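Thread: Modeling a multi-component assembly for a lab meeting

Hi all, long-time lurker, first post. My supervisor asked me to bring a structural picture of a complex we are working on to next week's group meeting, and I have zero experience with this. I have the sequence lines for every component (255 residues in total). Could someone generate the structure of the whole assembly? Inputs are pasted exactly as I received them:
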Amino acid sequence: MNEILVTAFGRIQMLHYPFYLKEDESFEERQQNLIDHCISYIGDLREKHILEVGCGNGLNCHYIEGRYGAKRITGIDLSDENLGIARKHVENTKISFIRDNAQELVHIPDHSMDVIICVESAFHYPDKNAFFRQIKRVLKPDGVFLIVDIVRLPGDAGRSLWFWKKSKLLYHADEMEYNQYSSGNNLVFKHRENLTDRIIRGYEGHVSWINRNNLNLINYLLMKLFTILQVRFNIAQLKSHKQYMLFYGGHRDQA
Ligand SMILES: C[S@@+](CC[C@H](N)C(=O)[O-])C[C@H]1O[C@@H](n2cnc3c(N)ncnc32)[C@H](O)[C@@H]1O
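Re: Modeling a multi-component assembly
Sure thing. I ran the full set together rather than chain by chain. Output:
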């Protein structure tokens, strides 16, 4: 995906869906909108130690540090390729990237994090209850967590295209399951928000996002076609049996 995005946009991009704020925004701005929207729940980050679980190529962490500041940011991910990209620009920053599994967080000490964020990564975890157990363990008593995830709608058995899902490590949960993971680990959601409409609108104008850059005509047309098909697929999913949810919470006893 990183290579495709570099080919299409000329430089590396965040690895999540775009979020609509206003007309005529670029793909990059709409991706940043999603992070801004997440941070608007959390507030001042300057004295906070932030953990991004499933940090991908690290762009979210860099964006957060640059725009909001932080005492320290730790990004963890399982993908060596993404971590390799993420680590390229950490010198003179407060950011570090570690290889770890969201369901284990073996490198993250107990009660060490003020803020945990997880953007479009949780649907890859087969054992989401283990992930919530880790949130409970590593979050400070007054800490907060924010998860953005694509969840199944009630009635979606999630078994269609199972062979494709398995190869892509897709394990979508539904909202009921989210409630169980949270309450079962003595955590609580203080807010939840359905972002589906804003995400679908985030794709408005996508046909003009790809410009020629250094691409020859054939590659340019192929890239446009790929983008259009990918966007149609993502929107179709969100219009039929998935929804795009934000969950914001903390320890139950602090609520
Ligand atoms: C769609 S990308 C999102 C990356 C980033 N959060 C963003 O918004 O740009 C999902 C990321 O989750 C990571 N991931 C998948 N399973 C994981 C796991 N069990 N533990 C840690 N990271 C995982 C993948 O390697 C990938 O980098």
